[in-house]
Amino acid sequence: MALTHGGQLRKVSEQYHIPVDEWLDLSTGIAPFSYPVPAIPQIIWQQLPQYSPELLTAAKQYYHCDNVLVSNGSQAIISILPTLWQKQNRKSTQVYLPFKGYKEHAQAWGNAGFEVHWYYDELPALEQLTSNCVLVVINPNNPTGKLFSRGTLTIYQRAVTERQGLFIIDEAFMDVITPNQSMSGYINGNNTLVLKSFGKFFGLAGLRIGFIIANQQWLTLLAEHLGPWQVNGPAQFIAVKAMQDAKWQAQQKEKLSQQRLALKKLLLNYFGDDINGTDLFLTVNLNNQSQAMYMYDSLCQQGVYVRLTDDQHSLRFGIPKPEDMERLSNSLGQIRLFP
To answer: Quick check: helix, strand or coil at residue 202?
Structure first.
């Protein structure tokens, strides 16, 4: 069964009878500022996608890792991991997943027949981890913003290795975390896989590029199952330029940080202080399903699209551009008190 995600603007537009171009879409964690797309040589449009050493080199330098594989987004990797892991370790039947988080992980492992064990704000106790288990960590978490330090994850990496299990770390939003807590440069043995999303930080989700960092054995196995032509040539060309542009990256981090602070200040005027997230999104925890659904619907009626979380207790706001702050403020101000 397909899961509900943010970014379904056309569907929401039809539901509320408001034209697509009249919406303020804050339903995703994609940066509102996009890397400027450079001129693309005509030959790249005419050729099938080529193997790109330049892209792999740029990715290794950007993510500070030794081994990396490019794919058409993290989702392709998430979908096939359970099947590949079952073939390598048939004793593995248990997976530990965050109760709040990107639900495609849970769906993939559940569909593969794994028994799901949920953990909440903190990772499961080390003594709870079973032999041959899979541990999935979304760091920082979407939508809660919960961040585990590299030191903590290294301890769990060691524990999973001792149990001959698999450690998966989804770092889709790690680009904006300072100081960096990424595990991409700490791949030890064959049990750790780190997933990276290109489009969120660079504001170019439409390119559909993701990376997986692992040892060479895993990358070879994944490449065989993903097949050729994973990422089109123009997208590869743009990604190389973006990952090599350190000046733009620094400017992007500064702008996102400033806008996050402005958004939080605005949200504090209308909600309690239970607001968490990253420089790519902020989540307002209402702990009341009826109130969250009411606020979501009220904003949609004004053409403001935010993300109602899976548990329907919270609203996740993407980071607006400066010129969109007044509209968001006015829309929030128009909402009557929850009945």
So the answer is: helix
